Amino acid sequence: MNPRIPITLTRTAILLRTLQATILPKMQAAMLLQTVTTNLMNTAIATTKTGYLTSGRDSK
Questions:
Q1: Is residue 13 within 8 Å of 37, Cβ to Cβ?
Q2: pTM summary value
Q3: Which residues lie closer than 8 Å to 19 by C-beta, 6 or more apart?
Q4: What's the confidence (pLDDT) of residue 54?
Q5: Could you tell me the mean pLDDT of each successive run of 10 residues in the chain, 60 residues long?
Q6: I need a surface site. Which of 12, 15, 24, 25 has the fewest CB within 10 A?
Q7: Contact assessment for residue 7 and residue 41, using Cβ atoms and an 8 Å cutoff
Q8: Alpha carbon of 19 to those of 25, 43, 55, 56: distances in Å?
Q9: From the CA atom positions of the chain, what is the Rg in Å?
């Protein structure tokens, strides 16, 4: 697997977290963005550990 995928996912999650903190602090979209960011981070962590791009539920 491409080792750059976890790095890209992590960078994307950090960017989304930054956007959430600066641009969207009072909007309803902030909650959705939080969920997306958390899922991205968990995927990046799982991908780094396993070497496979899986959902959190698939990696046990």
A1: yes
A2: 0.40
A3: 33
A4: 57
A5: 76 82 67 83 79 57
A6: 25
A7: no
A8: 9, 19, 24, 24
A9: 13
The Cα–Cα gap between 9 and 39 comes to 10
Distance between CA atoms of residues 30 and 57, nearest Å = 24
What DSSP string runs through the chain?
Answer: --THHHHHHHHHHHHHHHHHHHT-TTSTHHHHHHHHHHHHHHHHHHHHHHSS---TTT--
In one-letter notation, the amino acid at residue 5 is I
Look at the chain and count its residues.
60
Residue 39: closest CA among 56, 52, 23 = 56
Q: How many CB atoms lie within 10 A of CB 9?
A: 21
51, amino acid identity: G
